[in-house]
Design brief:
The chain is mainly alpha-helical. The chain is built from 10 helices and 2 strands. Helix 4 crosses helix 6, helix 4 packs across helix 8 and helix 4 packs parallel to helix 10. It has one domain. This is RiboL-PSP-HEPN domain-containing protein.
Length: 232
C-alpha cells in the first residue's frame, strides 16, 4: 500500500477550521449567557448604577449575532485562500518535475538572492502564487499537474464559486449587489432570461450563519477530495 505523504498546509487548514468553530461557539455562547443574566432582575440588583448604565449601552440583537458569523466567514475564506497557495507550493517542492517550464520571471526578481536555494524557493513561491490566483486557475493547475480533482462534482464547484462571490460582495461591496457582482454571477449562474429588465445597486440580504456552515462543509469536502487522491 502506498504511504500517503502528509501535507502541512492541510493540517493547518484543519486547525484553522477547528479554531474558528471554537471561537464562534465561544462568542455565541457568551452572547446567550450575557443576555440571560443581564435580563434577570436579581442579577440587576447586584449591580451598581455605573455598571448597570454601561450594560444598558451593550445590546446583542440578531443583527449583531449575524455579524459574528460574517466575520468568521470572511476569516475562514481567507484561510482557505492561503491554503490554496501553501498546498500548491508544497506540491511543487515535493514534485519538482511538475514545475511549469513556460513561466516568465524577470531577471531583476532573482538577482538579489545569493544562493541557488533562495532563487529556487523564490521561483517556486512565485509560480504557486500565480497558479492559485483564483479558483479556476487553481483547479486547472491541480488537475493538469497532479491529477487532483478538488471539487467532487459540478454542484460542489458551483457552491464554492457562489461563496467566493458572496465573500467579494461582503468584503468589497459592503453587502451590495452591484454591476460587478451581477456580471460575475452570470459566469456560473444560469438566468431564466437574458433580460432582467431592471437594475439598481441594492443591499443584499444574507443568512450569515448558513453561509459560514456551508463554507465549512465545502472546504472539508475539498480536503476529502485531496486526501482521497492519496498523493504519493
Amino acid at each position: 500500500m502506498t504511504r500517503r505523504k502528509k501535507f502541512k498546509s492541510i493540517g493547518e487548514l484543519k486547525e484553522n477550521i477547528a479554531k474558528m468553530n471554537e471561537l464562534l461557539t465561544g462568542l455565541i455562547t457568551y452572547v446567550i449567557v450575557f443576555k440571560k443574566f443581564t435580563s434577570n432582575p436579581k442579577f440587576r440588583e447586584l449591580l451598581n448604577s455605573q455598571v448597570e448604565g454601561a450594560l444598558e449601552k451593550i445590546t446583542f440583537d440578531e443583527k449583531k449575532t449575524n455579524q459574528i458569523y460574517e466575520l468568521c466567514f470572511i476569516r475562514l475564506y481567507a484561510s482557505f485562500e492561503a491554503f490554496m497557495t501553501d498546498f500548491l507550493r508544497e506540491l511543487y517542492i515535493k514534485f519538482p518535475d511538475s514545475l511549469p517550464r513556460d513561466k516568465k520571471i524577470s531577471v531583476d526578481d532573482i538577482l538579489d538572492w545569493k544562493t541557488q536555494k533562495s532563487t529556487r524557493t523564490f521561483i517556486i513561491d512565485h509560480i504557486a502564487i500565480e497558479n492559485s490566483y483564483d479558483l479556476p486557475t487553481w483547479k486547472r493547475t491541480l488537475k493538469a499537474g497532479f491529477g487532483i480533482e478538488v471539487f467532487k462534482d459540478e454542484k460542489h464547484e458551483q457552491l464554492f464559486n457562489l461563496l467566493n462571490l458572496i465573500r467579494n460582495m461582503i468584503a468589497h461591496s459592503g453587502r451590495k449587489f452591484n454591476s460587478k457582482i451581477s456580471r460575475d454571477s452570470a459566469k456560473f449562474i444560469k438566468r431564466k432570461t437574458d433580460k432582467l429588465g431592471h437594475f439598481e445597486v441594492t443591499d443584499f440580504e444574507l443568512d450569515d450563519k448558513n453561509l459560514y456552515e456551508n463554507l465549512v462543509n465545502a472546504i472539508e469536502d475539498v480536503i476529502t477530495q485531496i486526501e482521497n487522491k492519496n498523493i504519493a
